[in-house]
Amino acid sequence: MILSAEVECILYDGHSLKEKRSVLKPMVTRLRQRYNISIAELDHHDVWQRTKLGIAVVANEQVHAEQVMQRVLAEIDENTELERTITNIEFV
């Protein structure tokens, strides 16, 4: 079972690509290590106030994949330096 999500976020306080990376890189690394997921920036690479993340969870049960994805999204929401705006989730 593969569950994927495309998550768009806005970074309000970023004023450069360097500041954007200083917010995204630690968050992505922490999520990858904590939840054993695949996560990468998919779009808006050269825009310093927006990002689009791709997240994939592989599990043997649908319920487990959904639980992991909900925990990941909750942790993204807890980050005060960005706001999650549009999220598309689907089973592949």
What's this, in brief?
The relative contact order is 0.34.
Give an overview in words.
With 92 residues, the protein is of the alpha+beta class. The longest helix is centred in the N-terminal third of the chain and has 19 residues, at 17-35. Strands 2-3-1-4 form a four-stranded antiparallel sheet. The chain is built from two helices and four strands, in the order E-H-E-E-H-E. It has helices spanning 17-35, 62-78; strands at 2-10, 38-43, 50-58, 83-91. A hairpin with a 6-residue loop joins strand 2 (38-43) and strand 3.
> What's the gyration radius in Å?
13 Å
SS field, number of helical segments: 2
Order of helices and strands: EHEEHE
Estimate the strand proportion: 35-45%
- Quick check: average pLDDT? 93
The termini sit apart by 7 Å
| Strand order in the largest sheet | 2-3-1-4
Question: How many strands in all?
Answer: 4
**Backbone structural class:** alpha+beta
InterPro entries: DUF503, TT1725-like_sf
Protein name: DUF503 domain-containing protein
Organism: Aciduricibacillus chroicocephali
Features:
alpha+beta; TT1725-like_sf; 4 strands; DUF503 domain-containing protein; 92 residues; DUF503; four-stranded antiparallel sheet; single chain
